Amino acid sequence: MIIKNKELTDEMFLPAKSRNSTEQISRPANTYWQDVWRRFRKNKAAFTGLILITLILLLAIFGPYANHYGYDEQNLSRANLPPKIPILERFPWIGFNGVDINGVDKYEESKVTGYYWFGTDNLGRDLWTRIWKGTRISLYIAFLAATIDLIIGVAYGGISAYYGGRIDNMMQRIIEVLVGIPHLIVVILLILVLQPGIISITLAMVITGWVGMARIVRGQVLKLKEHEYILASKTLGAKNTRMIWKHLIPNSMGPIIITTMFTIPTAIFTEAFLSFIGLGLQPPIASLGTLINDGYKLLRIYPHMLAFSAIIISLIMISFNLVGDGLRDALDPKMRK
Amino acid sequence: MEKILDVKNLQVSFDTYAGEVKAVRGVSFHLNKGETLAIVGESGSGKSVTSKSLMKLIPNPPGRITSGEILFDGKNLVTLTEKQMQNIRGSDISMIFQDPMTSLNPTMTIGKQIMESIIKHQKLPKKKAKDKTIEILEMVGIPDAVKRISNYPHQFSGGMRQRVVIAMAISCNPKILIADEPTTALDVTIQSQILELLKNLQKKMETSIIFITHDLGVVANIADRVAVMYAGKIVEIGTVNEIFYNPQHPYTWGLLGAMPNVNYRGEELITIPGTPPDLLNPPTGDAFAARNQYALEIDFRFEPPMFKVSDTHYAATWLLHEKAPKVILPESLNKPGLSLSNEKSKESLMKKTDKRQKLLEIKNLKQYFRTGNKQFLKAVDGLSFDIYKGETFGLVGESGCGKSTTGRTISRIYNATDGEILYNNESIFGKKSDSESQKLNQKIQMIFQDPYSSLNPRLTVADIIAEGMDIHELYMNKKERMERVYELLETVGLNREHANRYPHEFSGGQRQRIGIARALAVNPEFIIADEPISALDVSIQAQVVNLLKRLQKEKGLTYLFIAHDLSMVKYISDRIGVMYKGRIVELAESDELYQNPLHPYTKSLLSAIPIPDPKTEHTRKRIKFDEKLSRNGEEEEPVLREVKKGHWVACSEQEYLKINNKDSEVISIYGV
């Protein structure tokens, strides 16, 4: 930048009046969670995942009430109907016009006048109702399992790391023993002993599932224990409860949330897997796993029976993983600029 | 002189979430053959980025060189491809990094690591490369190089590792050596050795060195020319004498004034108020204007060009313009001549100590840590000293000598293995009721070293400061609590509006002041400051030290000031204890200790402090301390003895008599 001498007037060389204080901070006052939300929104994939999860949750809650068919209402006269949706039926290429893969209009053949949005199964049950009922149960099991994991894991890992020494040593050995037993065997044995059902499946998943959370919380607390603000709190005379609730837990929140976010899809998948091999929920209760199990037998003839439940379970898995990834990035303070 | 490197209008930017950060904004300088150019400035001033872009080591993305030229050997480095740069890196230009712990590969022997670049660049056969490696290792002063060549990095100490790093850097006879804070992570005595080594190597090999540092003492020691950087620009450049004895830029004045000189004991250090600007939106005009007490109106409108002071000396400040008012250099910059107040303060101190009562008595304190079965790390091993009411007791020593452990034991973070600590004649250990224990917690407070890990990132500043008040229930209602928080914020020089903010929004110095406010909140009598300034920039250090001094005067606090920066300790402390291997080896009033050190370890420490004064720095001699040598086989365990009023030294009976016979002359008692 070249400035001509003429442009420089004398008053420019007067001592400057004091400007704003130099201690001012220009950044807006954001809380930690506001910052996290701001970063999370910028991540398009994760945000799409969040919208999908919300949508699926809403459908799982309200979907079954959208028509008047019950989830266990059998009627063989309307069995194996392909999906048919008003308005969309006018565009045959989408496949929602009630015509099966052989080109036969099943609705006309069985003289059914109603609409079955996702079709019906081999017992004539409405799949729309069953699928959303099933999603609801799958999600319920997943959230229940994740919450129990969270509670046991945080408590166990936290105690183990905070008290340390001999207590830590013993608690870690117990975890190692638990991890050493093959997961599937524990689950199968447990379900054989208890009757298959929502509670026993959840229990089976939780019995070893919390170990991961406990290890993560332990690592986090061990790291935080070395931080000087913990020491500062100690020199101020803080008690254990204060230390844990004010300092340790809030600062471990990030990893805890992320781990939970990844536990949920795993739990859904485990449930589906158990149902698929016949150890899961018993009919007439539906879950995504049992629906897939029923659907795959007739895959060649009636692909719609498998397609919808498979798509929904995939969407749930993908969106939870996307949100989990997005949260991990958003919660990492190093990303802040 | 022959120019070896010419940098013209270099600009480097980083693309971040928030936008483009202009880290380097038009830097021009040149480097002559065989000289040392020091680049100084606060953190974030762009000195490291500048040096890294010379080697094109800026990670891309997010960083990129937006414009400018780097002329080296007739080539413009900016336009070279990555492949061509690889040939230059290591052979023509090489670099030494700050941390010797992370700049060596822990899974390779040091020999292999050095040979790697020799084989690549000089195309020597393996056998010859090995001979050369041994030769270089001997050159950088690694004893027994033939054997040590097959050692792994973890088998070397910090100083030795930095020597290995230097050996790696010079293995191909580079024309330019870039040293990015090579001594910051090292103890003073090691630092002085490394500086010596670099100077010798330069003489032998005629390398040009670009030396990046924030320590002006080091600059005075090693540099031929100095460039002062601020907010991505060079604000002043000149020979070392010009910069130190005739500085023109107000920022340079601030930097020089903020360094306490060992030979000076003034009332207050000069500080540069505020913090460096946000380079996301650099201010219009002079970036330094907002912090400059001599700012002119024009500073806020136009950027100053480089004004010529002499052929080698340029400065970018409007103060040098013909129309500008004449500003006289701040007085205290001529520090060497200002050590008059010495005598007075010393006498008054002596008088005071007689009347003072002991606040803290430490008797034969031992603190061991279990490292394995029946193995103990003796961090503190038989430590005894007293602290009087209202004084500042400085505790110095190298890393690992147990000074931080001492502080933490006093604040009862650790339980002492053995020994006694009396606070107001009452032991702080042993069985205590809850209320007694809480009272003690309230009276003894601590300020921590790392401003980034000492504040809980999830709490607002108000909650952080009020934590102690919450614990001890020092307020009646919410309103009183907030009032007290506001009052404390203002005491430490922050605004009330800061109360609802979170720690990550503050700079290091501001965070440290929040930490001080937290300690003050419970009205303590005694504060342990554990290296409170070692993580801060020089200008910010001065802010914190001035604050601590002011608070002491206002509230009658007693400090235990733990540090390894001897010049700062000397400035702030009334009495100083020198620690070595878990014990005190010498204890005296600070002036007495600096003028008349008796223990050889103290002497070596003192001689190693770099002083921001090129003339003294070029003439002084370093004293090396070797424990084995100085003790030369004497059986007797040295004990702390008072050789003079208030001056204690760890020595044997014989030595004690010797010192007493010769009275208090400056003598060497160990034959060093």
Determine Rg of chain A (CA atoms, Å).
Answer: 29 Å
For the sheet with most strands of chain B, the description reads: 8 strands, mixed
Percent helix range of chain A: 55-70%
Biggest sheet statistics of chain A: none
Given the C-alpha coordinates, what overall shape of chain B results? globular
The number of distinct β-strands of chain B equals 24
Helix content of chain B: 25-40%
- Please, how many helices of chain A? 11
Would you count the extended β strands of chain A for me?
Answer: 0
Structural class of chain B: alpha/beta
Oligomeric description of these chains: heterodimer
Radius of gyration of chain B: 26 Å
What fraction of residues of chain A sit in β-strands? under 5%
Strand order of the largest sheet of chain B: 6-7-8-3-9-10-12-11
User: Hey, which two chains have the biggest interface?
Assistant: A-B, 48 and 67 residues
Poorly predicted spans of chain B: 335-348, 663-672
Distance between the termini of chain A: 30 Å
Summarize the structure.
By secondary structure, chain A is mainly α. Chain A has helices at residues 32-42, 44-62, 106-109, 127-163, 165-180, 183-193, 198-225, 228-235, 240-276, 288-297, 304-331.
Walk me through the structure.
The complex is a heterodimer of chains A (337) and B (672). With 337 residues, chain A is mainly alpha-helical. Chain A has helices at 32-42, 44-62, 106-109, 127-163, 165-180, 183-193, 198-225, 228-235, 240-276, 288-297, 304-331. Helices cover 34% and strands 24% of the residues of chain B. Chain B contains 24 helices and 24 strands. In chain B, helix 3 (110-122) runs parallel beside helix 6 (158-170) and helix 10 packs across helix 18. The two termini of chain B are 42 Å apart. Mean pLDDT of chain B is 82; it is low at 335-348 and 663-672. At the A-B interface, helix 1, helix 8 and helix 9 of A face helix 13, strand 18, helix 15 and helix 17 of B.
